Each structure stands twice: as structure tokens, then as C-alpha cells.
Amino acid sequence: MQPTLNSGNRAFALKISSNLSRGDIIIFEYDQKIYVKRIIGTPGDKLVFTNNEIKINNKLLEEEYLITYPENTDFLNDKESIELEVPQKSFFVLGDNRLNSIDSREFGVISEDRIVGKIFFTYDFKVF
């Protein structure tokens, strides 16, 4: 989730899986592992990915939390595009470090029942 979350950061999360929206950072379980990712697509959203752009319901998603990548960066692993509609009670999630992230591009949407919690704030932990 770099640059948003870095090694050594600590986070406060609440155990909730309802009232989630695009941009929220969530903790969820998938394939017996715990992941921290950002919600990009919510139930009913129509997503279109081409190169390094995401359109949601025909509107370009502005992602100010991402680091700047070169224009020819391939976030789709050699696919020309991805189009999907997020099913009810499911979410499409991506890591903020798109070139080094295992996320919904690989394992598909995640169901609401896999969500452990939502991160509300983070802080740096330093030992003096």
C-alpha cells in the first residue's frame, strides 16, 4: 500500500463491513492471508481499466494517493483492458503500489463477508 502505508506504520481499524465506500482502506482475508487494500469499485459499479487509467461508471477515477508512474506503465499485465461490473455485496480492491500489489486484478472481487475491518487512521511507530 505504499506510499499510503509504509513498513513500521501502525493503524487503527474498526471491525466493520458495512457503510464502506470508494477510497476506504480495508483489511480482509483471502486464501488464508490478511490483506490491506483500497476499495476502488463498490457494488453495482461498472469498471473499465485501460493502461494506467480507471473509469468508474464512465467517469475517470482521480487517484491523488498514487505515486506518479510513466505514461506507458502497464497495470494490466499485458491485457489490453479489463471491464467488469462489481456484484452486490462485493468490492474491487487495489493496492496503492500498483506495480507490486496482489489485489483484485489477480484474485477478482472480494465478498463483503471477507472484510475484517476498515482502517480509520495510521501513525508512524518509532522506538526511542
Give a short summary of the structure.
By secondary structure, the chain is mostly beta strands. It has 1 helix and 10 strands, in the order ββββββββαββ. The strands form 2 sheets. The protein has a 6-stranded antiparallel beta sheet. Strands 6-5-4-7 form a 4-stranded antiparallel beta sheet, with no helix packed on it.
Task: Give a structural overview.
With 128 residues, this protein is mostly beta strands. The chain has one domain: Umud Fragment, subunit A, CATH 2.10.109. It is built from 1 helix and 10 strands; from the N terminus they run ββββββββαββ. The chain has one helix spanning 104-107; strands spanning 9-14, 25-30, 33-41, 46-50, 53-56, 59-60, 81-85, 90-94, 110-111, 115-124. It has a 6-stranded antiparallel β-sheet with strand order 1-10-2-3-8-9. The chain has a 4-stranded antiparallel β-sheet with strand order 6-5-4-7, with no helix packed on it. A hairpin with a 2-residue loop joins strand 4 (46-50) and strand 5. The chain is globular. The model has no long low-confidence stretch (mean pLDDT 81).
Q: Would you spell out the secondary-structure blueprint of this structure?
A:
Blueprint: E1 9-14, E2 25-30, E3 33-41, E4 46-50, E5 53-56, E6 59-60, E7 81-85, E8 90-94, H1 104-107, E9 110-111, E10 115-124
Antiparallel strand pairs: 1-10, 2-3, 2-10, 3-8, 4-5, 4-7, 5-6, 8-9
